[in-house]
């Protein structure tokens, strides 16, 4: 008898869909196969696609409060004239409710774990605890060349890690980017990450202008310089990585650094199209993220899956440039792998982070190959069940751990103060 049994679903196993039953004990998958199994709780999944949960590998979750706030602007203008100004008004309670809003959206669209880099991160962690969501969290640090600020930022980042680093919530260091963090500060972070045995998440090479300015100041592009100071290791996940040269891609592969690709945000801010196929061929682990809702405008990872494949086809003018299965794996197991979490696959022993989709939706019919249906036809609204750590967070489209109406009411009150910016 299992704690939870998912019965007779069409399950994504080792890159293809197979009819199977899944048994879950506590927070792990303990059986995958064709035997007739029973559970304390049972989900009848016939007529459903059963997938590993999606991993949103790069977010700024509370930026759900700024959805639609600053539009049709390039990144640096967007940051300097709108976003950085409005962020100064954020209070801890705002970040809590903005995070709850983002978590509710992610649960409803099949995300079971996410990585978040922002401010007032204790509130994000509290929202994760209360909702049951799995997460990798970090305080967004920037010293901007100030030695005093570097000390203070590092202290805040360390204290957050001490409070929250554990099993379901992993806490890591989150330096914002090489253009807001000095090389000396990044070296200090690398040293402390090694001492505390935690990872690092950082924005790198998001825009052409950013890279050109960095080269003018440092004579080398960001990845080459980060490697020179010993910053890059297997525990580093860089967000974006759009403007990379061949040498930098080779460095990332050699150092086993993962890249969180954010195609919707990259397009919306006109930042560019990342060289995903080149990275994959070089051996870089590429995973997928949405970035913040202010530059996306959703936390629906299914949009990123489809666009990841389509963009590489048009970038290389090859219809088979990036296969559907590769894009799907980027959203599942590659994200878990990037952050060293033992999930992202329907396999015995893996964490029980699983989603179920209604395969009878009109946009799935006919389903000659479910992999293509998932990658090219899914909108996110097909998700019926979201299971995190063996616990059902959404059942038959009903959120069980968060109050959707209360979140909506709180957010509508909070955003009144942003209207004058």
In short:
This protein is an alpha/beta fold.
Percent helix, as a range, is: 25-40%
Give the low-pLDDT segments.
none
Number of domains: 2
Assigned CATH class of the largest domain: Alpha Beta
Number of helices: 15
Mean of all residue-level pLDDT scores: 97
Q: Quick one: overall form?
A: globular
Radius of gyration: 21 Å
Considering the protein shown, what is the CATH homologous superfamily of the largest domain?
Answer: Metal-dependent hydrolases
Number of strands: 18
Query: Strand percentage, roughly?
Result: 15-25%
Sheet with the most strands, sense and barrel status: 9 strands, mixed
Protein name: 5-methylthioadenosine/S-adenosylhomocysteine deaminase
Pfam families: Amidohydro_1 (PF01979)
EC number: 3.5.4.28, 3.5.4.31
Function: Catalyzes the deamination of 5-methylthioadenosine and S-adenosyl-L-homocysteine into 5-methylthioinosine and S-inosyl-L-homocysteine, respectively. Is also able to deaminate adenosine.
Structure report:
The chain is 39% helix and 24% strand. The protein has 2 domains: 2-52 and 343-404, Urease, subunit C, domain 1 (Roll), CATH 2.30.40.10; 54-338, Alpha-Beta Barrel (TIM Barrel), CATH 3.20.20. The chain has 421 residues and is α/β, with parallel strands linked by helices. The mean pLDDT is 97. The protein has helices at 75-87, 92-108, 121-131, 147-164, 183-196, 208-218, 222-228, 246-255, 263-268, 276-282, 301-316, 324-331, 333-338, 370-377, 404-414; strands at 2-13, 16-25, 28-33, 39-44, 48-52, 54-59, 111-118, 134-141, 169-171, 174-175, 200-204, 236-240, 258-261, 285-288, 354-358, 383-388, 391-395, 398-399. Strands 1, 2, 3, 4, 5, 15, 16, 17 and 18 form a 9-stranded mixed β-sheet that branches. Strands 6, 7, 8, 9 and 10 form a 5-stranded parallel β-sheet that branches. Strands 11-12-13-14 form a 4-stranded parallel β-sheet. The chain is built from 15 helices and 18 strands. It catalyses: S-adenosyl-L-homocysteine + H2O + H(+) = S-inosyl-L-homocysteine + NH4(+); S-methyl-5'-thioadenosine + H2O + H(+) = S-methyl-5'-thioinosine + NH4(+). Its cofactor is Zn(2+). Zn(2+) binds at residues 58, 60, 203, 291.
């Amino acid at each position: 008898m299992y704690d939870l049994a998912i019965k007779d679903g069409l399950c994504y196993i080792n890159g293809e869909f197979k009819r199977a039953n899944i048994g879950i004990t506590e927070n792990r998958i303990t059986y995958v196969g064709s035997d007739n199994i029973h559970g304390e709780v049972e989900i009848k999944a016939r007529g459903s696609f059963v997938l590993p949960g999606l991993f949103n590998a790069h977010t700024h979750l509370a930026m759900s409060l700024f959805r639609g706030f600053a539009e049709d602007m390039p990144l640096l203008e967007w940051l300097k004239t709108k976003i950085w100004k409005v962020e100064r008004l954020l209070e801890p309670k705002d970040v809590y409710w903005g995070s709850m809003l983002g978590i509710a959206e992610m649960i409803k669209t099949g995300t079971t774990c996410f990585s978040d880099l922002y401010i007032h991160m204790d509130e994000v962690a509290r929202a994760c605890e209360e909702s049951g969501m799995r997460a990798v969290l970090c305080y967004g640090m920037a010293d901007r060349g100030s030695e005093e600020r570097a000390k203070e930022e590092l202290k805040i980042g360390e204290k957050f890690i001490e409070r929250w680093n554990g099993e379901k919530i992993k806490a890591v260091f989150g330096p914002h980017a090489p253009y807001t963090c000095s090389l000396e500060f990044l070296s200090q972070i690398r040293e402390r990450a090694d001492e505390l045995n935690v990872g690092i998440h950082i924005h790198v090479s998001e825009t052409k202008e950013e890279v050109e300015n960095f080269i003018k100041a440092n004579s080398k592009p960001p990845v080459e310089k980060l490697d020179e100071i010993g910053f890059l290791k297997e525990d580093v996940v860089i967000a974006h990585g759009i403007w990379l040269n061949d040498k930098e891609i080779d460095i990332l592969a050699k150092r086993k650094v993962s890249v969180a690709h954010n195609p919707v945000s990259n397009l919306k801010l006109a930042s560019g199209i990342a060289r995903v196929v080149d990275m994959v061929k070089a051996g870089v682990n590429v995973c997928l993220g949405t970035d913040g809702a202010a530059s996306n405008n959703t936390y629906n990872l299914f949009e990123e899956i489809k666009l990841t494949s389509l963009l590489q086809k048009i970038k290389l003018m090859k219809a088979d440039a990036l296969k559907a299965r590769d894009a799907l794996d980027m959203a599942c197991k590659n994200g878990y792998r990037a952050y060293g979490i033992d999930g992202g696959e329907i396999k015995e022993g893996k964490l029980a982070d699983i989603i179920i989709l209604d395969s009878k939706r009109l946009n799935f019919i006919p389903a000659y190959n479910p992999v293509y249906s998932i990658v090219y036809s899914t909108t996110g609204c097909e998700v019926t069940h979201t299971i995190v750590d063996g616990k059902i967070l959404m059942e038959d489209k009903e959120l069980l751990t968060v109050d959707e109406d209360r979140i909506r009411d709180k957010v509508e009150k909070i955003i009144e103060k942003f209207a004058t910016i």
